[in-house]
Design goal:
alpha+beta, 4-stranded antiparallel beta sheet, 24% helix, binds 2-amino-4-trifluoromethylsulfanyl-butyric acid, binds cobalt (II) ion
């Protein structure tokens, strides 16, 4: 194994690093719930789905996206010191099944749980386990629901108790970076304008932009071939056709954005141990620009809670 290069944390609170806890037994999904193709084998196979949605699929994605947004709003209410990430997993699993859906992460490429919970320096794909949340933590909860043959993928980062000022700013500016990425979308516009807007905002606040994980096409498949970097990629000259569905999900860091993978082959952490935040929406390219699919019928989402602390 390669020796881990250790660097001093430059910014943010000095709390002990996140360590893996115990992972609970696999949760079951009732037989009458429709499953995505990878549910049994873990293998999603090659991406074959078109990037542009039919009106029927788009209507289904609105409903599934709204249900995912509701689950994220409800799990957010459980976030407090002492709650384990496994308890959050149980809630998301049961809420997904109660909504008549399948929690998309479960057995996707062998992922063992129903939601991703990424704490502090964990960039993404944190596996829920027995670790209780501690006062001062930040946690990203990434909910994806499969229902009516389509996925809705959305995440937000939340505060656990009393959080330091640097982390609060990181979280708020990451939420704003997603909003700016969304605002950059226009029909037949360049994909790279999204990353350009996000990177510009990050630089303004001296935040890093993670390059190892990017947004993606989503629809009947969890991850399709369309790639959405959150940094400016000059050579990326592809354009976004109307009715294309995809995610934007920037991960920003207080320190360097370089990532390191844990031995579990899922948990990605910052190499320098500094904190990182992420927000994600599933979107469709509409005439007026990107329309968010992962909002409630009233247009609400968990992101609003973090952008407007009064709300
Ligand atoms: N929801 C994540 C994303 O935004 C993917 C999680 S894959 C899993 O793309 F297997 F870890 F669940
Ligand atoms: Co995603
Ligand atoms: Co996600």
């Amino acid at each position: 194994m390669a020796k881990r290069k250790k660097r001093q944390r430059t910014v943010g609170p000095s709390l002990p690093p996140v360590r893996a806890g115990l992972i609970s037994p696999t949760r079951r999904v009732p037989a009458d719930i429709a499953r995505p193709p990878y549910a049994e084998t873990g293998d999603p196979g090659p991406s074959v789905a078109p990037l542009v949605q039919t009106p029927e699929n788009l209507a289904a994605m609105r409903r599934t996206g709204a249900a995912a947004a509701e689950i994220l709003l409800r799990v957010a209410e459980l976030v407090r010191p002492g709650v384990t990430t496994d308890e959050l997993d149980r809630f998301v699993h049961e809420a997904s099944v109660d909504a008549g859906g399948y929690p998309s992460p479960l057995n996707y490429r062998g992922y063992p749980k129903s939601v991703c919970t990424s704490v502090n320096e964990v960039i993404c794909h944190g596996i829920p386990d027995s670790r209780p949340l501690a006062d001062g933590d930040i946690i990203n909860i990434d909910v994806t629901l499969y229902r009516e043959g389509v996925h809705g993928d959305t995440s937000a980062t939340f505060f656990v108790g009393d959080v330091d000022e640097a982390s609060r700013q990181l979280v708020k500016e990451t939420a704003r970076a997603l909003q700016l990425g969304i605002d950059a979308v226009r029909p037949d516009g360049l994909v790279n304008e999204i990353g350009q807007a996000i990177e510009r905002h990050a630089r303004r606040f001296s935040l890093g932009v993670v390059r190892d994980f990017i947004g993606h096409g989503v629809g009947t498949e969890f991850h399709s071939n369309l790639q959405i970097p959150h940094y400016y990629e000059r050579r990326l000259t592809s354009r976004l056709e109307r009715n294309t569905t995809f995610t934007i999900e920037p991960m920003l860091t207080l320190g360097e954005p370089d990532a390191l993978m844990w031995d579990d082959d899922w948990t990605a952490v910052t190499l320098d141990g500094t904190r990182t935040a992420q927000f994600e929406h599933t979107l469709v390219v509409a005439e007026s620009g990107a329309e968010r699919l992962t909002v409630t019928p009233a247009g609400a989402c968990a992101h609003d809670l973090m952008l407007d602390p009064a709300g």
